[in-house]
Amino acid sequence: MKKFSTVFNQILQLLPQTEFDRVINEFNTDRYVKHFKTKALFAVHLFSQIRKKDSLRDILCGLEHHRSSWYHIGLKKIARSTISDANNRIPYKVYEKVFYHMLAKCQFGKSHRFNFENKLYALDSSTIDLCLSVFDWAKFRRKKGGIKVHCLYDIKEQIPAFNVISTANVHDAKIPQVTDFKLIPDSIITFDRAYIDFKQFHAYNTAGVFFVTRTKENLRFKFLGQLNIPTQKGLQFDHLVQVSNAKQRQKYPNKLRLIGFWDEKTNKVYQFLTNNFILPAIDIAHIYKARWDIELFFKWIKQNLKIKSFLGTSKNAVLSQIWIAMIYSLLLAYLKFQSKFPHSVLNLARIFHETLFFRQHLIELLGLRPDKVPESNDFKKLSFC
């Protein structure tokens, strides 16, 4: 009877191995290293993410009970000092690049949530508080430390599409100015009022990218005209406008679309600003409402991934752990899609938490019938021992 490798090994095999090796060679992280190499550190961090380990001692204690399975995950011998040294030796850029290679595999097809074909993203950030006396490189305020994870979230695919990690004192609006998100023309990006910047609006418009946001109370507009009077429930108006302030108009001289929507739950009228004159007004309101998905994503990773307590105190160790947590979120989304797992990603994470070193095929583990499993090369490539 054929004996399967561990669930942990099968999860690791889903990574883009060729690209991973190429990145390792690019940074020479395994040069002169005999035992604890880059992939071994990744396996330790991933074990920490899946089993929710809080310290190096906790990790070693957990792994010690599965020494017979170390071979299948690339481990030979480890110690706390070895992990600590590797956290400082292996640059976080390695795992950042692996994240984007894994992201390239996560193309899940069409979403039925919106009728339009445009790519749809939400942009937002979340702050992770750090103790300034321990993480002295992450100064936020005089007596407070922190880092900020800026995320471009793919709403249709329900995965993070781009991440920037900065110290917490960096203003949200500066990130789009210094970062090339590489949005393709006709993409739609939605964000809250913290990202309102008319110079950046002009950059989006020039690149053929549509934006959707809420207006600030102090913004004033010049009325240019009115589009068809909306008939859908909640819609109040659909105006063509231009910013009144001369400096703002110099940064963005084009016309804008101002849409009013009444929310019966809050009994408030929300005003949305966009450069998209094609989609119906109700779709613009729904796009901004979908921005809440990124808030749920931040809430989920903070509650279910290890990004609030860290295995090292250096900047490199902290960023490495965050990037590996993001890779794990992609692995979960990828497995859920490819296996057509009928339950939530949280249930999938709980299954892996309990069965990480079981010798059972992933398909059988997830309780799927053979006729429900798609023909995927990744499942065919899973190693067996």
Question: Explain this structure to me?
Answer:
- Among the domains are: 7-102 and 315-380, no CATH class; 193-282, Ribosomal Protein S8, Chain: A, domain 1 (2-Layer Sandwich), CATH 3.30.1370.
- The model is unreliable at 369-375 (pLDDT under 50).
- The chain is of the alpha+beta class and 385 residues long.
- Strand 2 and strand 3 (144-154) form a beta hairpin.
- Strands 1, 2, 3, 4, 5, 6, 7, 8, 9 and 10 form a ten-stranded mixed β-sheet that branches.
- It contains 15 helices and ten strands.
- The protein is elongated, with a radius of gyration of 24 Å.
Distance separating the two termini: 11 Å
- Backbone structural class: alpha+beta
> Could you list the spans in which at least 5 consecutive residues all have pLDDT below 50?
369-375
* Overall average residue pLDDT: 90
Q: How does the major sheet shape up? A: 10 strands, mixed
* Count of individual helical segments: 15
Helix content: 25-40%
Strand content: 15-25%
What's the total count of β strands? 10
Oligomer: single chain
- Output the helix-strand order: HHHHHHEEEEHEHEEEHEEHHHHHH
Radius of gyration: 24 Å
Q: What spatial form do the alpha-carbon principal axes imply?
A: elongated
